[in-house]
Amino acid sequence: MASTVPMKTIAIAALFVVLSYVVGPPVQRTLTVFGYWRQPVPTPLADEDLVVIDDTTNCEDLHFHAASNTLFTACEDHLETRFAWFPPLSLFDDPAIVAKNRGSIHTIDPKTFKSTRLAFTNFDDPFVTHGIDVVSDPDRPDGEAVYVFAVNHLPNPDFLWDGAAAAAATAGVPKARSRIEVFHHVVGTKMAQHVRSIAHPLIRTPNDIAAVSHDAFYVTNDHYYRGGALRQVEDIVAAARWTDVVHVRIKNSTSRTATEGFDISVALPNVHNSNGISRGRSADEIVVSSCTSGVLNICQRSASRLKIVHSSVKADFVIDNPNYFADPYAGDGGDFSGFVLPGLSHAIDLGKTHTDPLASESIMVALARPLPGGEGAGQWETANTTDKWETRLLFEDDGSRIRSVSAAVLVAIDPRHEGGARKAWAFVTGFLSKNAIAVKINL
Ligand SMILES: *[C@@H]1O[C@H](CO)[C@@H](O)[C@H](O)[C@H]1NC(C)=O
């Protein structure tokens, strides 16, 4: 393994050099987004403004369910799993580890910063965690119960792992058979009850989920290629719009057969590296990040289909899972509602660091919103049709306080408790981080 790592890095660097001669300005942008020129500048924090959250190992995604004032995340829980088996990073070394180490859904109380692992009922399969989403159970008063949708990256039983000859015999067969799990959770309990699994050939390389109701959700496929050189091309070349978003409507919520009892269709084709997905500002808005382009695509829903309305929300780094922050204290002191964008600040290194338990990845978290003082200030519709967006850095780290980032959620602090200042706790999770953290930031 060790000897292949520098080779891969050299290959990526060589590809960059070649591309820089061929395509010019887009490459300038790509190098910026990958952090080629960037040195991390960790945001200074007082000791009391940093909380390391216990029992949050390798948690990818994070969502705030406002009605129950609860954060939800999905964590791998065992440090070694992620370095042995993680299809989203083309890591297929040890499929057997998933039977031994199992990930879980956690809740985090934003007041006490305490993480609670939910025990599964009705579910014995391995669970390799990635993106999730959470919606209220419509049959209960809001805040009492939720449905949690979660990606699960299982090994493919049709790939023959036993020795080189067997593997060669199944060479064209994907090594992962990823699927979606649906759980039901009654807030305040320590259980997540499995509702059903969903597997389909259109769900190929699932990354993140945006649920629009208890029985309908969107899921991104982040790559077309599961490995190899062309996968690197799709990471680097923004014109490689080879990924998509699919829509699933569950028809039979009690089906015990993963492949039956739902409708599925492509909701949005031809996206570059569709990665994070989230509900937006209104019921008909969904946002999808083109991760390695550093672009957040604002999409409009009509039935199951999505249409990109504009792609003018950008960051100068790769954008992982977005979250919409609805500022509950918007008023005279300003409205800080916007899209919280997390990403690696030096993604160019990920090819070499992601297999190294001792490495680290530097990170950035930004807030994208209409430009204050601009024509569109406070008016999303105006901002929608122009480039009048600002993407402002909220938090930066060199990887020592949090290793890697994949999601961030803002929980606003009542300005009366901060002498009128607008602040928030930013909860930050990392797909390679031993712990999630919460940091108090200025909005
Ligand atoms: C839903 O799934 C259950 C369990 O697999 C099955 O018994 C039932 O017949 C299905 N219902 C419909 C309407 O297909």
Automatic annotation (TrEMBL):
Highest taxon of the lineage: Eukaryota
UniProt protein name: Serum paraoxonase/arylesterase family protein
UniProt cross-references to InterPro entries, sorted A to Z: 6-blade_b-propeller_TolB-like, Arylesterase, Serum_paraoxonase/arylesterase
Protein family membership: Belongs to the paraoxonase family.
UniProt entry keywords in alphabetical sequence: Disulfide bond, Glycoprotein, Hydrolase
UniProt key word Glycoprotein: yes
Pfam families, alphabetized: Arylesterase
